[in-house]
Design a protein that fits this description.
2 copies of one chain form a homodimer. Chain A is built from 12 helices and 12 strands. Chain A has 365 residues and is of the alpha+beta class. Chain A has a domain of 215 residues: Ribosomal Protein S8, Chain: A, domain 1. In chain A, the strands form 3 sheets. The first copy, chain A, has a 7-stranded mixed β-sheet, with helices on both faces. Chain A has a 3-stranded antiparallel β-sheet with strand order 9-8-10. The two termini of chain A are 24 Å apart. The interface between A and B is large, with 87 and 86 residues.
């Protein structure tokens, strides 16, 4: 039994995957979202919790509900295909729930890749789409290599800057592995995603690394409340200095802004809005590639397996218990939580039940 | 007059771009490389020096010459298209000079992108291809978004490991900007490329950051000789710990190994050979995307310009003189060096002239 995050059972209630899914889905349906769309969003949020990425899980339900209530998220969007070829497409999300339009986009990318080797589908005019890895994982489960990127609201001070300016802009890659769960890289291009800072805020503890600066003095700060306020900004992957490669994390954030923002006709960096903003104009980029079109699909999966085994069996550093590959911790956490339930913080548990009550849905059992 | 790297004029000789190009080209021709292929390699190496990336410039000439002499690099390769569709292709480089097959690959990617919106061309069985940015830049100069990635020989200890195992595997993205030189990100996925360590070895100084570990104890080391020997390994971008995001740099290195290695039928991580190895089986990944196919090409370039201006005009951190965007330092350095010449270390200058003499080429004037 492995869980990526250490769980304090006194602070949490364990809820089964299906029960959590039911309540989240029913809340969206009660708000007017179609049954099938509600299932997509619920699956996405619950998957984040299953895999140990609670920052992107059901604790965000309130934000989504607020976004719908504020009119920043349309429940019956008119999603349009604005460009299309046999291998690519651009969708206008019409301010839909990010998950709904992103799910449509990967279905198209998968279909194009299966038919023509490659499928690239971009989205403009969308909202927060949950974990980037959800989409790369789904594509990889189809036997394809999947890439998923999204713009996100400004939380990061790029190298040389002293304000929240670029997003934590994640990059995810999923790839099928012979007889095993996919390889799954899912990373913010900042040193940490904001969710990690939120974890320390909840614990009322300083963050344990050089993760952020003051936007007033430029100094490294560790108070999570300040970091998440306008007085703080997260650092790019690589940290404050060019010496440690901070300009690379900054560059990767811009790469994501170009591919999923500028290229797709969506906005970028500091113009990107949050879930409850009116017209957040989030952009996504998805790519699916069929390894069978570029070579031999079976050999690809076998070589992926071989590469992963080699990486795990390298000479081990004494400070580490073992060598992990990307996705492995998430897969094991998912396995565990499907058996013993998903730990939900009591505060979140109560919040979900209040929302449920408010919209007339049977609360978590 | 700006140069990315501080130049000690006492240690260097300034050589004009054209003269450096001439000698490098003629050396390759003297070794039996065709005139047009020699021009491609010379342009690639000299471009690195022009842009201030000397580690990938003409100081590598000896390695290429040695590679050809050792038979690890074929001068008259039979480059084959092993897979092809209107939007993608896979080439077998037949152990060609990396630049030669990579140049062919981007020509194909550019043509496909101009015709069909997207061009993805992979290469297997190649050699070191110089700076990744060369190819992304060339694609961007055609008005397209260009991506360039390559596997490289094992120099980096991935998170949890204590040996040279994965490559410094660079990622480059170039994108056209209205009325200006392209945006050009060109980054190793390690905290630094090995070339940066070589700079300190030449100066006989310890490296100034947490760039590498001992492969015997796992501790951070700063002696460039040890770092470049089997007793040292460079760290991934993000550093030694997961706390600072080291697993993300590791993940990006694997991403590059998957896209340009496994997917293209080339090898990966610790199996990749160096320039003078027999059959190094380096793999490359190139992608060209036409912004005009996904939206409006002019608007894309205007928005790129707007985004860049915004990034540069953000509230500045007091520790930084100014805010840069990717490619800017290289462009300014290129402008300067086209005027006043490229600084070549005397040792390198002499080495080039010895090679020239050996193969009967008129030395640098």
């Amino acid at each position: 039994m492995f869980e990526k995050v250490k769980v304090d059972e006194n602070e949490c209630v364990r809820v089964s995957r299906d029960e959590l899914f039911r309540v989240v889905k029913e809340v969206f349906v009660a708000l007017g979202v179609s049954e099938s769309d509600a299932e997509i969003v619920a699956d996405n949020l619950v998957m984040a919790d299953l895999r140990g990425v609670e920052s992107h899980g059901v604790q965000r339900l309130k934000r989504y509900v607020d976004g719908i209530k504020a009119g920043g998220v349309k429940i019956n969007p008119d999603i349009k295909v604005v460009k299309e070829s046999p291998v690519f497409a651009v969708l206008d999300g019409d301010e839909a729930l990010g998950q709904v339009v992103a799910y449509k986009a990967i279905q198209m990318a998968i279909e194009k890749a299966k038919k023509n080797g490659v499928g690239i589908v971009g989205v403009r005019n969308s909202n927060h789409y949950g974990i980037a890895g959800y989409y790369a994982y789904k594509i990889a489960k189809e036997g394809l290599v999947g890439i998923s990127m999204t713009t996100s609201r400004p939380l990061v001070a790029h190298t040389g800057a002293m304000e929240k300016f670029v997003g934590t802009n994640p990059i995810s890659l999923g790839a099928p592995v012979d007889g095993e769960e996919p390889f799954l890289l899912d990373m913010a291009t900042s040193v940490v995603p904001s969710g990690k800072v939120e974890v320390y805020r909840r614990k009322n503890k300083p963050v344990p690394g050089e993760w952020a600066i003051s936007t007033e003095t430029g100094e490294i700060i560790d108070d999570p409340n300040t970091i998440l306020s306008p007085k703080g900004a997260i650092l790019p992957l690589g940290g404050l200095k060019e010496l440690s490669g901070g300009h690379k994390g900054y560059g990767l954030a811009v790469l994501v802004d170009i591919m999923s923002g500028v290229l797709m006709g969506a906005t970028w960096s500091r113009h990107v809005g949050g879930t409850s903003d009116r017209k957040s104009d989030v952009g996504h980029f998805f790519m699916a590639i069929d390894p069978g079109a570029f070579g031999d699909a079976e050999e690809f999966k076998k070589n992926m397996k071989k590469m992963i085994e080699e990486l795990k069996n390298a000479k081990k550093h004494p400070n580490f218990e073992k060598i992990w590959v990307h996705g492995e911790k998430g897969h094991l956490t998912m396995e565990t939580r499907l058996k013993i339930g998903i730990p939900i913080y009591k505060k979140v548990y109560n919040e979900i039940n209040e929302i449920a009550k408010e919209v007339g849905v049977k609360p978590l059992q």
